[in-house]
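Suppose you are handed a protein chain with no further information: no name, no annotation, nothing but its sequence. What can you learn? This example shows the usual starting point.
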Amino acid sequence: MVPSILSLGYHAYRVIPVTVEVHLLPGTLGMQIIGLADSALKESRERIRSALLNSGYSFPVKQITVNLLPADIKKEGGQLELAVLTGILVANGEISPGILENHIFLGSLSLDGSVRDTPRLVSALLHAAKYEKRIAVIPAEAADMAAGIPGLRFRTLQAVEELPRLNELEIFTGKEQPVPLTGTEITFDQLLGMEREKKALALAVAGRHHALIMGEPGTGKTALITAASSLAPPLTTKEKLESSEFYSLAENSTFLIQAAPFRSPHHTSSDAAVIGGGAKPRPGEVTLAHNGFLFLDELIQFQTRTLQALREPLENRIVHIARAQEKVTYPADFTLLAASNPCQCGNLFSRSATCSCSPTKQMSGLNKISGPFLDRISIELDVQKQPVLQPASKSHTWYREKVLEVDERIRSRNGKRGNNSLNRAQLMEQLRGRTEHKLLEDLSQYFSLSQRGQIGTMQVARTLADWNRKDTIGEECLEEAFQYRSIRLLIRSVFSRAA
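A reasonable first move is to predict its three-dimensional structure. Written in structure tokens, the prediction is:
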């Protein structure tokens, strides 16, 4: 009977179950791997041979055929080596086939027979946890990481020589681990004044609203956003595992994400790097920022094509990538936090300095922030230089506790995080009365908001109501939400002057 071993491999940037079949035939000494194995897997033949001999086993003097199923999908991943070696030992009668029934084998091999960790193993273990009746056999050095995956049952191996007594080894069970709050070196306590900006960014974090800050150089835009990211509530176990899977696939990470991701690609990054793609589609920065933040510093320095490509994931929170031979969908539920000078000299919106840029230069940068892109931004702030020694009225700890409180209110009402997914009908039902309906209509007209822009502003107003512990959206919340729409008015004035 041909031994059949379950393992988990990769096809491009996704995990696939792989059944490993090993057949020994009379003939010349040799080993052939079929089933669309990549070059790295084919090179594993010599590692497997050396690991067997150095572990005290004989290498079969036969023709060894290793079949990887499904046969029509290309496979990657060094963690298949342990499964192949186990299949050879069973087929050669050196260990009992009974160990194959309830296990998933994951691990690569050293020449001396030790079982080693492999890149992207985190994503494989997350999928292994879905096989409730199976026990994952993993490298001992991955035990600490595996212990944080709820529902995963696993045994650990130090070396190949432990395989015959596999059923005697202890079975461990992964459990939920405490998830700490995000921490950064910069906090609101270090930023004097700017109470309006701090509150607006705290609202963006609590309600998951996209935000853009523009202003003079040196006003603390980057520091504000970096500090605001540390206000993020702890990730749920589901969010932590989702983010860990894509970090493992895209960056070969060997750890579990513990707090909200914070991604900050350079402004020279290509659209494929930010959105995802390539000849072999891979996750981009928007997917690595899933359940966290995507920080675009110097926004108007990014390529126009990249900013326009962001429009779909900003609204739909997923990314569809289609290539000739591959179609994939990646999650992209992130909060965009962007900062930028409004022009090359940075003084275009300043109340205390004069802009030295020509009208053409002024508009060339602002043209990158198209109307449809700005419609997807719910909080817009222009930042001015602060008076010297202006004290902060509220501490960073106060803002963090307030964000946690608002997050709890939102989840209790909506059943999930954030107000950014509420539709127009849901929001209109929460307006307090006729006065609020009329105010919404008048201010939307004054700010020239589209339907999408109105919804974004109402979502911020809903978060403000939660901030104020109100059950409905009142007039004061609507007025404050519209105050966070200042950039579009400044851009409009620039283009009016140029006309």
